[in-house]
Records
---
Amino acid sequence: MIKFSLILLAIITFSQCASAKFDNNPPFQITSAEVQTYSDGKSKFQGKSLTIRYTSKQNIQFDSVFFDKLSTNLQPKNTTESKMLIGYFTNKEKRDLILHENPALELQNEIPIIKELPFQLKEHEAVISYFIKGKKKYLKITSIKKE
């Protein structure tokens, strides 16, 4: 009974923390978000770029973006016309797997590294992180357009 109570308490605590992570009043406004897929055409190299346009009167230190079960650093690309953030997500070239009747030979295959993202995101959703007065904050973007 005590174990059950502790597990229930932990679930309630973490579920409330997960919903409280997002900033509802950021010091900037997202004006658009678009994702593009690109490829070099020759090899298996391909990826996606997520472009986020925003307006702000303050200087903001943007950190990273979580999108499509991946994360990457945000790169600011400001022009005289608009302020932009770009995140590049690349799919590394897939290596050949060794499949053999002798299982010992299959031990040479690389073990995939699977990172668990801290957010549950739907398709066309992303989360960006940024710093305000040294404190890390998060904002969910829910309307990403596909180009």
---
Amino acid sequence: MINWEVYDGCYPVLSLNGTGCDLLVRSIDPSLFQFVYQVGNRLAGSVLLGHVPARKMIRVFVGYDPREAVVFHVCVQSLVKYSSRPLAITPLALNNLAEIYQEDHVDGTNAFTYSRFLVPFLCGFEGQAIYIDGDMVVRGDISELVGYLSPGKDIAVVKHEYETVACRKYFGTDNRNYPRKNWSSVIVWDCSSAFNSRLTPEFVRTHDGAYLHQFKWLLSNDRIGELPQDWNWLAGEYLNNDSAKLYHYTLGSPCFPEYASCQHADAWWRDFNEMIVPIEATDDI
């Protein structure tokens, strides 16, 4: 006899009642239901499959540069604030990656210019993951992004088409135009794709910025899915957009004095203040 029950929003608990030995199975993979059912019948035992999260945790990798560590923490505050699902947030800090990756590139504005391409490797080339630059604040539910990675696509990005309004940006870096500029600042990854399996630490270390940031390892533009522009709104480059779901301070975050009052800086300062100042207790909390 097969009984299905649901406990606390988890996947259904499968109980096979019979005689003989009892077998307890717990798994985070619902695809094992059929396997457990077969084992249960074969053993004529009692099988329990339970305590499985109804929706899997989302892996989010965030670019980290020690010269502007505060922007990473504000970004994380915004991620946690708006997400409806549990997040596994990983900073892409080069000192954390020292055992597997040596950064030999000498170009790039920040310390995460190239480490973002290690995400599939860091995920064991399995499942999905999201990458975002650290100089962002999220104003929507990041879990929405996983729904935009369609079958047959290796990544999904916002496909910006613009020319910058500023010749220089934070840290005094040259801000030049180039194909697919800022496409790689928000990426939804299919880490298990055959093309993305090429992205080993050695592969990333030995390929230049134009090759990686233009996703040339994918060989075909058809492999690149598209995210809504609201999920990578370029503050200071685009017009005001109070409904955007992610602000990207690509010219410079408000933590820098010269950008403290930049476009949409209020959203950044709001999350910054919530991060450093306890919210007073109210009847609503």
---
Amino acid sequence: MKTGDWVRLGQTLSFNEGTFKVVDLTAESVMIRGDDGGRYTLSRGLLETLRLSPAAPRRRFATRTNFFRQELGVLAAAGYHVGRGGLDRERRRAILSWVFEAPVTALPKVGDPAYLAEWGAPSSAQRFSKIANCLFAFAQNGLARPDQPREAIEDWEEDLQWFYDSYGKRVAS
């Protein structure tokens, strides 16, 4: 078993039976992510006890969104790229942090003034929502494609979860 593998597990008190992606492995434990986005850490022994028949990655579907009005947005212009030819996790998240905290005048000059105004003030709820909505829409559009870019979708989903975990509470208070 390795990171990225899919496993079918039986029901526990924490989650229902289903297919889970292995997102982290240590000598003693395995972190998995369910379809609901929930992350669970299990001992390797418990994982083997709960394991059912082998699992193949499940293809998920979504409806393409018309969220984007232009080809090149602030995130892409800032260098945020995912998937096979994209950046590693640390660099992607550094860009997301910079875009969240930078003054509007420092953001890449793309689109018209109305588009840049959508990004709001640095570290604001408006900026948080704009970035979170972009990441969500990227993932949904990837899922809507017949040739789903699995690595890119996983990167967007994981970056979105990280972004919520890192900045959501700050914006909410």
---
Amino acid sequence: MRTLSAARSVLVSLPMMITMASASIAHAQAPATTQPVYVNPAGTVRMGDLVEVAVDDLVGANVSTAFLLRVDPAGRVGLPLIKPVVLKDLTTDVAAVRIAKAYADAKLIQDAFVSVAIRELGTHPSIQLGPIASGDVVRVSIADLETSGAMASLDVTVTSEGTVALPHLDAVKLAGLSEIEAASAIARAYAAAQLIEAAQVTALRIADPKKSPAPTTRPAATKPTMPLQVGDVVEIGIDDLMAVGQTSTYATRVDAEGRVFTPLLGRLAVAGKSGDEAAQLISMAYGKANIVPRARVSIAVRNGLTDQPRAFVVGDTVEIQLLSLHRSGDKIYGQLAADGTVHLPMIGPLKLMGLTEELATQALADQIKRAALEENPIFSLVRTTVP
């Protein structure tokens, strides 16, 4: 059973249109990444990394909210309503479990579903670590600002006086503060003004307000120009599979027998076929099985991740896409520890060492059933270790 603390109460409704400010940063010393860099979202969190933390049921019931946060010199990230959490040197799956425990310990959310993904490496930052200074652009995210139960984001420029302008507030001084301290200062300002009690706020210095803070971190997935081959990691999108009007997208590897995983159908042979041919084959299979008539299917290949199918070993990374359990869209990123396990929110440790992706998928399904979370879970599992 999940419960959300009443501390997130809104004292005054603040309907408004937020204007996104744009400016250049004067004092950022680290150059933005100029060449596309693949950053495996699963792995070990380090100082300076930019991580994406998704927390379910924090802003509102049945709402998953994602925050982009930078790991500070002490190895911490700042999340709404709880004390900073140390993530340095933790794998992404263990980091997610630690954050979930922090929300449970604070009596805010019991059994929180949390995921952590690395989006930018501290060794290749878009902006250098450091305190906020005049001229910086800070991306501020605030819950319940425009709409109750929703996050609003705005980019604000730090003035020469070291302050920023925020909706319905006098100037708030941020110069000299860390991102964690800035978020706390903004939350206190809204509480002092009797506008939002215990405001949920995050703050992130960004190098270019016109771009995502981490524009080159996701693996590129493109329409295949060559026939699919064993070892390719493909992203498959299927319309209306889990719900009408919803596209379920997941990643899977072409296995040693040339097959890919398809939810509710099993594995279908696609090796040697073009992307369009494979998509048509999958669509026809869903229609023939009376699961999705005339299913619209898309296929893209993740560049740079082709690798021969093999068993998991210590250090390998894994991406799990939950399609039926909890809510479609939830992902878990993990790295096999020395004992060959990954740690999964609500599910617990899962031993993958020595298993192929197909056997690992079955092992996870069995564990979900043992945890009494779902009788017939639907999900995908793929190794994302870069060859």
